[in-house]
Design brief:
306 residues; mainly alpha
Length: 306
């Protein structure tokens, strides 16, 4: 187990290093003078040169790369060209909002998606299964930003029950979390249904039924536990993507998280912050996938690492 964990952590480090080098080169290869773009068209040439020196853009590319990677190893993602604050501090200030939104959305999606998919599998081919499948297809196909706008119109503008934007209190979390959870819920329900249908036709399920076990016991104690592996994989991927910045949802609801910071940084040509966010997103996604792989051993004792 320890050897496996070390191997995976090395893999995470290599992945993040590859992403860091790639994003560093892509930012430098963008057309135009980054210092002029960041300073603006009204800035004097002296201001542009000062900004270029402050950002290290006057150094050769290889030296910029060495400095960038050296700072990255020490946890320094550079300085924001927009606010002059440390990028690490900027990301750290926004991360709790994104973590809260991702966690709330995932809990909501799992709480609805797993029972819904199980319910549809148990009643496969019946009217209930058809209705659930229709809802799932609707959830997967519907654009997130459209659902967010509809929720704002109904619950904020017409009913005035919930705030439409910002992060001022628990009620502000309801609409963005529900918007994100709907797509994840549909995807989780679909995977749960497929996995449960496969498990329900196994011999040990027939044996449990033949021994007189109740439907509830067969479904929830025997079938669902063995059907959870692919579901956990999907949950982990969805959670990793949400941590990576629910860009559209955070923009629609003015949620002060990493996704909105990324959008603001792109429009402001704040390349150090964009660069830092991409690296952090890659790190979070890799760590979440590692956690999911380790969780397999919890839900299935037959899993061996090594």
């Amino acid at each position: 187990m320890t050897s496996y964990l070390l191997q995976r952590l090395v893999g995470v480090a290599v992945t993040v290093l590859f992403v860091a080098v790639t994003v560093f080169l892509m930012v430098r290869l963008l057309p135009g003078d980054p210092a002029r773009v960041i300073a603006g068209v009204l800035a004097s040439q002296q201001d542009v040169e000062r900004l270029r020196t402050r950002l290290g853009l006057d150094q050769p590319l290889w030296r910029q790369g060495v400095i960038f990677l050296g700072d990255l190893v020490q946890g320094d993602l550079g300085t924001s060209a927009r606010t002059s604050n440390s990028v690490t501090v900027e990301i750290g200030a926004r991360f709790p909002a994104t973590l809260t939104l991702a966690f709330a959305s995932t809990v909501l999606a799992v709480a609805i998606g797993v029972p819904l998919g199980t319910f549809a599998a148990v009643r496969a081919g019946r009217l209930a299964d058809l209705l659930v499948s229709t809802v799932v297809l609707f959830g997967i196909s519907m654009p997130v930003y459209w659902l967010g706008l509809m929720l704002i119109i109904v619950f904020s503008i017409r009913l005035r029950w919930l705030p439409a934007a910002g992060a001022e209190g628990p009620l502000s979390l309801v609409l963005p979390a529900a918007t994100l959870a709907f797509f994840s819920m549909a995807f989780i329900a679909r995977i749960t249904r497929s996995s449960m249908l496969e498990v329900l036709h196994q011999d040990y399920i027939r044996t449990a039924v033949a021994k007189g076990s109740t439907e509830r016991s067969v479904v929830w104690r025997h079938a669902l536990r063995n059907a959870l592996a692919p579901v956990v994989t999907v949950i982990g991927l969805q959670f990793g993507e949400l941590l990576g910045g629910a860009i559209l949802t955070e923009t629609v609801f003015a949620w002060p998280g990493l996704g909105r910071l990324l959008v603001d940084s792109i429009f402001a040509r704040d390349y150090p912050t964009v660069q830092g966010l991409v690296i952090v997103f890659a790190l979070l996604f890799a760590l979440v996938n590692l956690a999911v792989d380790l969780f397999y051993g919890v839900i299935d004792p037959r899993v061996r690492y090594g």
